[in-house]
Amino acid sequence: MSVWIAVIATGLGCYALKLGGLVTPRRMLDDPRVRRFTELVPVALLTALIAVQTLTDGRTLELDAARLAGLGAAVAALLLRAPFLVVLVVAAGVAAGLRLLGL
Amino acid sequence: MRDGLSVGVAVGVSGLAFGAAAITAGLTVAQACALSLLAFTGASQFALAGVIGGGGGLVAGTLGAVLLGGRNALYGMRLAATLGVRGRRRLAAAHVVIDETAAVATAQRGPAAARAGFYTTAITLYLAWNLTTLLGAVGAARLGDPEAVGLDVLGPAAFLALLWPRLTGGRAAVRVAVAAAVVAVAATPVLPPGVPVMLAAVAALPALLGRRAAP
């Protein structure tokens, strides 16, 4: 049940932000510091998510070779300018392949 | 129009990945679909699923997901004049102000093309994203062990792909990224799951200081 509350709250919160942007006067964006901050917050959050999901399990640090290799494969695919979905398939495929080999 | 269709279909298919990641994280098929219908902003959806999958606090997970949706407010500010919508139409248009629709709209010459691009992307992507979320969720729900097929890598790989253009865009972003990763990993053993990710947002704070932001 509580997961449902989180799902609905996330939906409402995300919608409120989208609507808020459409109705906010544009001059809020005029301060370059505010603009930079709002551009960098997603960078911080996304990197934190990558780090936590790759390097930890619950509250302990964990190095899973297959998962790290999968993420490395994603980096290689991105360097080769692969499209979004190809990056994901390559990453999951490498991790799955290594686990199949017993790593 | 053509930009909108191709972006909508190409990105929309990624709903497969979200559906699969949500099931891997322990959400039900209905919860995955509700997120795609209600939140309709990929990174936030992956974020909430990721925190739930990590056994994390739902409050922190929700706050992180919503905070991540903050960039949509910026797109809205930029698009408001171009779209020029009022009343009930504004309530509907707001729901589809996201990375992709903003990108297509701002890439067009002239307001008419921008509006056409925005709505084409919005409708195509909304349909594709929700349909493929359902397919991905149902498909993953039938798999025995999601880790065996590498689905646990989908979340981090998706975040990396979303982050990539920003990382290659400037040194400030790389500095923030490194700091955020260090904060989040260091805080993981001592704070409840989900909170370290929220805490990592402080890595962006230096951007608020100083008269001129660093390049």
Could you characterize the architecture of this molecule?
The complex is a heterodimer of chains A (103) and B (215). Chain A has helices at 2-23, 32-55, 65-79, 84-100; strands spanning 56-57, 60-61. By secondary structure, chain A is mostly helical. Chain A contains four helices and two strands; from the N terminus they run H-H-E-E-H-H. In chain A, strand 1 (56-57) and strand 2 form a beta hairpin. Chain A has a domain at 1-30. A two-stranded antiparallel sheet of chain A has the order 1-2. Chain B is mainly α. Chain B has helices at residues 2-12, 15-24, 29-38, 42-53, 58-68, 70-83, 87-95, 99-106, 111-142, 154-167, 171-187, 195-199. Chain B is globular and about 50 Å long. The interface between A and B is large, with 76 and 106 residues.
Strand adjacency order, main sheet of chain A: 1-2
Proportion in β-strands of chain A: under 5%
Shape, principal axes of CA atoms of chain B:
globular
Tell me about the biggest sheet of chain B?
none
- Average pLDDT level of chain A: 88
Tell me the number of strands of chain A: 2
Helix content of chain A: over 70%
Estimated helix fraction of chain B: over 70%
| Poorly predicted tracts of residues of chain B | none
Structural category of chain B: mainly alpha
Shape of chain A: extended
Overall pLDDT of chain B = 86
Straight-line N-to-C gap of chain B: 35 Å
SSE layout:
The complex is a heterodimer of chains A (103) and B (215).
Chain A: H1 2-23, H2 32-55, E1 56-57, E2 60-61, H3 65-79, H4 84-100
Helix pairs in contact in A: 3-4
Chain B: H1 2-12, H2 15-24, H3 29-38, H4 42-53, H5 58-68, H6 70-83, H7 87-95, H8 99-106, H9 111-142, H10 154-167, H11 171-187, H12 195-199
Helix pairs in contact in B: 1-9, 2-3, 2-4, 2-9, 3-9, 4-5, 4-10, 6-8, 8-9
